[in-house]
């Protein structure tokens, strides 16, 4: 996946760069070298750019540049928005605030809840304790899950 | 003999603080030849030796892909300093060691400085300098530029290296089978072509493999080695960078031990200052404070200077009588010097605020927070701050671009900043709007501000098309740790930049002020109506006829080039009304103007040639006359055009 798609709070590993030469040199020299771990720290109030932690320091990149950095998640924890249909997952963390947590609770989704993903196209449909819930893509991105089995 | 030292390092590692600690006040600031990047030089003395230190621009690598990198690299290659110091930050050492490896490939006399060692200690980081020294083959000095720790050791090490007591051993990093084979191949063809000169063949080969534009062209031209494909270059670059980082990581494992890792104070502060909801309000509160300092607090001093200069001018007139000499001294020279000096409090205060934001580490955060807004106009968040300052005065706005990292973005910001309507234009708006739009004064003035913002945005896009081919300036920057700026560093920051304004812009403003005085005084001995300026105004009137500006209005615009608020006093002279007497001003002005003309005139004042001081600042910051001349011509054309539109639209409604 692209670095721009990796959700906030996760850590990924750089696989490949796909950028114009002048930007590529700068990105490489800042430490985005294949094999390096990058943590997605936060996003700006207006949604872009984001802050990444690489080589012990914070670096800002706009979406445009982050799209040119190919990465793979190194944790087994992924956002629900990247989950595979048919698989079962356990909820491990929420990235939203109070309102978001309340919404999740109303769906019966808490930390430790087991869910089964039914479909993942423009939002995620899941089965939670025998009920069907549907989350938008943005919301699903704020639920971190770990695959079971 | 003088020992020549170059100070290299990543941005934000405390290089400037270390430079200040080494040289104290014995430093001067200029620009690197031909470009607008700041060059700092200073002298240090130790053990009877004089050490001349050049502070190179902060860079992450030496690939010559930016002006900064090119300057740093060319200096090390061509000036061959006696010692190169590589300054690194103890808290993100990998990055600095990367640069060290690159420099070691082209230079032998290198000292590694690990700075901010006090912070590392506080964070439970232990750095073994003997391990570092062993693996990189260079002397290592641990310093803290903030409290002066290790500075003397560094001086000792510099002198020792210059006297050949200490030296670094050339490190040969193994880049892996693949790259090493390629290096040997290129080296072979280089040796056959016999063009090496002073260059190191391994270094040349590496740069060639990394796709360094300059080296590629050089080798193709001289040695006939063919250029590499983009794909191959990317592959090489990644492999080379990876080999360097792998080596660094293996050294780090030996040399550094970490005791604990927790959320640092810096991260906690950052959480608040770039917060999703609080980030923008906090940014605007800081800007408000900066504004207060730059304009309100400084105003007290500016007013004092202003009063002192008027008093001095009066004194001259009283003692010499009313003649051309007393007018030259009082209006031309004292007025001109005063015109320069009234900006000084604003500029010092602006740099104080900016310096605090930069030294503390907030500045890049502000750019981060506001970036999204500016992307559409092909600028980054950093230029937003400079443009905002322009509402107070364009001169500090232009000067505050000094630390925009990307030189093209910096130029673009300088070119558009004059369209931001500064506070000096306000007296003109107030006079005309309150005479011709008594019911809608505020609305009219507000519309001028909106127009000014639209014009700035439009110009950003035009300027980008014209000069930068629609390229965006990427916002790839490091967010340094927060730290408390030291008083000494702040003082040096403010003084260096303020002094620069006085030296460079001061002369231009003074000469131009005297010229304008001359045009207004001669040949009629002070009678403005018969002066050269009025003659020029009359000559220009036909050009201004489509806008329906009279020769008096045109002459006022001419004087307004000195400073836009002068338009008001010129009106009062030409139309014969007291500046405070609104009623007689209304009578006098409404004979020649109607609301549509008045509005068009205000639009013209908003957009046309920024004042002399701004033009001088633009000359100083861009380092050539080309850009200020572009500003003058472009803004005059734009002013004419939109003023024409405003007049004709206004005629329909007013």
How would you portray this structure in words?
The complex is a heterodimer of chains A (149) and B (654). By secondary structure, chain A is α+β, with helices and mostly antiparallel strands. The longest helix of chain A is centred in the first third of the chain and has 9 residues, at 21-29. Chain A has a six-stranded antiparallel beta sheet. In chain A, strands 4-3-2-1-5 form a five-stranded antiparallel beta sheet. Chain A contains four helices and eleven strands, in the order βαβββαβββαβββαβ. With 654 residues, chain B is α/β, with parallel strands linked by helices. Helices cover 64% and strands 8% of the residues of chain B. Chains A and B meet through α1 and β4 of A and α3, α10, α15 and β10 of B. β4 of chain A pairs antiparallel with β10 of chain B.
Write the layout of secondary structure elements.
The complex is a heterodimer of chains A (149) and B (654).
Chain A: E1 11-17, H1 21-29, E2 37-43, E3 50-54, E4 57-61, H2 63-66, E5 69-73, E6 77-79, E7 88-94, H3 98-106, E8 114-120, E9 124-128, E10 131-135, H4 137-140, E11 143-147
Antiparallel strand pairs in A: 1-2, 1-5, 2-3, 3-4, 6-11, 7-8, 7-11, 8-9, 9-10
Chain B: E1 2-9, H1 15-23, E2 27-31, E3 38-46, E4 49-55, H2 67-79, E5 83-89, H3 93-104, E6 110-115, H4 117-122, E7 125-127, H5 129-136, E8 140-142, H6 151-162, H7 177-193, H8 201-209, H9 213-223, H10 230-255, E9 256-258, H11 265-273, H12 279-320, H13 324-341, H14 343-360, H15 362-375, H16 381-389, H17 394-399, H18 407-416, H19 426-436, H20 441-468, E10 477-479, H21 487-521, H22 532-544, H23 551-560, H24 566-575, H25 582-590, H26 595-607, H27 612-622, H28 626-653
Helix pairs in contact in B: 3-10, 5-10, 7-8, 12-13, 12-14, 13-21, 14-21, 15-16, 18-20, 19-20, 19-26, 20-26, 21-27, 22-23, 23-24, 26-28, 27-28
């Amino acid at each position: 996946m692209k670095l721009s798609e990796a959700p906030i709070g996760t850590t990924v590993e750089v696989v490949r760069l796909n950028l114009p030469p002048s930007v590529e040199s700068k990105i490489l020299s800042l430490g985005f070298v294949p094999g390096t771990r990058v943590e997605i720290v936060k996003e700006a109030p207006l949604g872009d750019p984001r802050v990444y932690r690489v080589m012990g320091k914070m670096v800002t990149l706009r979406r445009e540049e982050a799209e040119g950095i190919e990465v793979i998640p190194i944790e087994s924890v992924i956002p629900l928005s990247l989950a595979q249909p048919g698989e079962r997952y356990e909820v491990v963390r929420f990235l939203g605030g109070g309102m978001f947590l309340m919404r999740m609770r109303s769906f019966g989704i808490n930390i430790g809840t087991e869910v089964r993903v039914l479909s993942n196209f423009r939002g995620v449909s899941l089965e939670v304790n025998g009920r069907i819930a549907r989350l938008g893509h943005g919301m699903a991105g704020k639920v971190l899950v770990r695959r079971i089995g | 003999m003088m020992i020549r030292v170059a100070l290299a390092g990543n941005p934000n590692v405390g290089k400037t603080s270390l430079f200040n600690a080494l040289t104290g006040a014995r430093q001067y600031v200029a620009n690197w030849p031909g470009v607008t990047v700041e060059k700092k030089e200073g002298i240090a003395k130790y053990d009877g030796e004089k050490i001349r230190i050049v502070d190179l621009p902060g860079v992450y690598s030496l690939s010559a892909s930016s002006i900064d990198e090119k300057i740093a690299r060319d200096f090390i290659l061509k000036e061959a300093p006696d010692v190169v110091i590589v300054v690194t930050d103890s808290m993100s050492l990998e990055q600095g060691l990367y640069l060290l490896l690159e420099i070691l490939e082209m230079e032998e006399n290198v000292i590694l400085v690990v700075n901010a060692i006090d912070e590392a200690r506080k964070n439970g980081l232990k750095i073994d300098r003997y391990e570092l020294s062993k693996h990189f083959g260079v002397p290592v000095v641990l310093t803290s530029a903030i409290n002066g720790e290790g500075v003397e050791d560094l001086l000792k090490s510099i002198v020792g290296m210059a006297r050949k007591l200490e030296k670094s051993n050339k490190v040969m990093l193994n880049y892996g089978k693949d790259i090493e084979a390629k290096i040997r191949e290129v080296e072979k063809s280089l040796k056959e072509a016999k063009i090496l000169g002073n260059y190191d063949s391994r270094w040349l080969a590496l740069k060639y493999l990394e796709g360094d534009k300059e080296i590629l062209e050089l080798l193709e031209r001289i040695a006939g080695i063919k250029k590499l494909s983009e794909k191959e270059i990317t592959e090489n670059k990644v492999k080379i960078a990876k080999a360097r980082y792998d080596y660094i990581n293996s050294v780090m494992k030996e040399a550094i031990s970490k005791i604990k890792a927790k959320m640092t104070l810096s991260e906690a502060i950052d959480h608040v200052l770039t917060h999703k909801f609080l980030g923008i309000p906090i940014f605007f509160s800081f800007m408000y404070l900066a504004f207060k300092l730059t304009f309100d607090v400084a105003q007290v001093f500016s007013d004092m200077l202003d009063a002192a200069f008027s008093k001095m001018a009066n004194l001259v007139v009283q003692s010499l009588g009313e003649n051309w000499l007393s007018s030259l001294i009082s209006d031309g020279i004292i007025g001109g010097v005063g015109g320069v000096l009234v900006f000084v409090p604003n500029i010092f205060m602006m740099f104080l605020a900016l310096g605090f934001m930069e030294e503390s580490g907030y500045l890049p955060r502000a750019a981060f927070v506001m970036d999204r807004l500016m992307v559409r106009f092909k600028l980054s968040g950093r230029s937003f701050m400079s443009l905002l300052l322009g509402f107070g005065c364009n001169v500090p706005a232009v000067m505050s671009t000094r630390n925009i990292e990307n030189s093209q973005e910096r130029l673009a910001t300088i070119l558009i900043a004059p369209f931001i309507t500064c506070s000096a234009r306000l007296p003109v708006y107030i006079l005309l709007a309150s005479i011709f739009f008594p019911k809608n004064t505020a609305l009219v003035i507000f519309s001028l501000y909106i127009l000014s913002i639209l014009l700035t945005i439009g110009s950003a896009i035009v300027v980008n098309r014209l000069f930068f081919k629609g390229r965006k300036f990427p916002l790839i920057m490091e967010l340094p740790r927060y730290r408390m700026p030291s008083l000494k560093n702040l003082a040096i920051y403010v003084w260096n930049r303020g002094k620069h304004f006085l030296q460079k812009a001061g002369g231009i403003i003074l000469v131009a002020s005297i010229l304008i005085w001359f045009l207004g005084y001669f040949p009629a001995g002070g009678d403005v109506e018969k002066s050269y300026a009025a003659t020029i105004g009359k000559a220009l009137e036909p050009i201004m006829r489509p806008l329906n500006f009279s020769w008096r209005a045109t002459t006022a615009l001419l004087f307004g080039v000195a400073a836009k608020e002068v338009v008001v006093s010129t009106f009062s002279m030409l139309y014969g009304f007291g500046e405070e007497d609104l009623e007689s001003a209304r009578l006098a002005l409404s004979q020649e103007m109607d609301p549509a003309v008045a509005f068009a005139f205000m639009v013209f004042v908003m957009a046309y040639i920024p004042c002399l001081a701004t033009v001088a600042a633009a000359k100083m910051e861009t380092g050539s006359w080309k850009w200020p001349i572009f500003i003058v011509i472009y803004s005059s054309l734009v002013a004419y055009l939109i003023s024409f539109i405003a007049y004709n639209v206004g005629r329909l409604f007013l």
